[in-house]
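Notebook entry, structure prediction.
Reason for the run: the old model in the group folder had no record of what sequence produced it. Starting over properly, with the input documented here first.
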Amino acid sequence: MKITDVKIRFVEGVVPPDMLVLDMYMRNTVHYIPVNNHYNPSSNPFARPSGAAAGTPNKKVDAFLYIETDEGITGVAGPIMNVNTIGPMIKNSFSTFLIGEDPLNTERIWDYLYRRDLYNHAGINIMAISICDFALWDIKCKKAGLPLWQMIGGATQVSMPAYANCVGNAYKKDGSGYDLDEVARMTDWCVKNGFTGSKWYPHRGPADGNKGIQELYELYKVIRDVGGPDFKLLLDVWSAWDVDYTLKAAKKLAELDFYWIEEPLLPNNIDGYEKLGKHSPISISAGENIVTRWNAEKYLEKDALDFYQPDPAWCGGISECLKMMALIAMRNKRIALHAYCVPVCAQLTAIYTANVCPISEYLLYISPSGQFFYKNPIVPKDGNLYLPSDPGIGLDIDESKVINSWFME
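New structure, fully documented this time:
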């Protein structure tokens, strides 16, 4: 089998009026929240658009990678984030190597693409490698007639409990914080729909001192009261705090029986994470910005985290994420994949037992939009994710949703 062509296809469709319009290809940078700010629905890139009233068409455009072969099997992967940068990189640079290669040789291809730029082993380059690796695995699975989870070893979990990522929900329009009544309603909805917990984001930081911590405590006190004693509380700081403030907040929030505090520090502050790991009364998670096995090993050597959260779409693809997960599991640490691409994350999670991969992420605003064009999106049922049965990695496009499409020139 040989690769004959590499294409970037843009697809346009109209999403339901109540769905967030999130064009992944439009996001050309990753924005971290300021220390004393939070997502504000008036400017938040994840917030519902002002035109999303009932009956108003919402056009959405996403980009997908197509790797074609001489056997008529095409690998499909996407949506491609940062496609304005990644697209030309793949089409104009990677393709000169990919065309003519055997797509089943994923290790050879990964090694070449990684070595081709020894000065750029993170960010856009790794994301481009990741999306190519996705498409190659799609070819391998389709060639074998198997879904990804069977191709990589079979499932130890047939259903995986999911928590609700509530980013963009219940935040006051004036930017002053959360509407606690709406938080209570959202929590009740999560419980009734079977989610095992929910994740929210802080709107205060170190400059707010004890007042900020108290406001955060009041937010999660509502969630604990409504969710009950078994409902998991998760906090995603999005790299906005420092070590001292995190420890101070953790001491207070521990009273509510927290599941984890996620990414309190900037990526690669391994010494800071090591200190948190030793002194925080709440488990610390991070990893969506940890790319490749070599960076994961740096954290593991210092026992810096309780939960590791690599994202297969950002860390080097399925090939690399499998290696990272093996390293993490070997050190008896837990894994909760960052879920940019729900179908792939669910299938990678399924091959490990629940003590290694105990929980999955589902973003209430973002995951439906990110999966809009998929033929078979994975949507929680009674708060659980279930495995697909079709051959491939699960990212094929439902052409009935496409009203227009074109290829990158």
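Summary: The two ends are 26 Å apart (CA to CA).
The old model has been moved to the deprecated folder.
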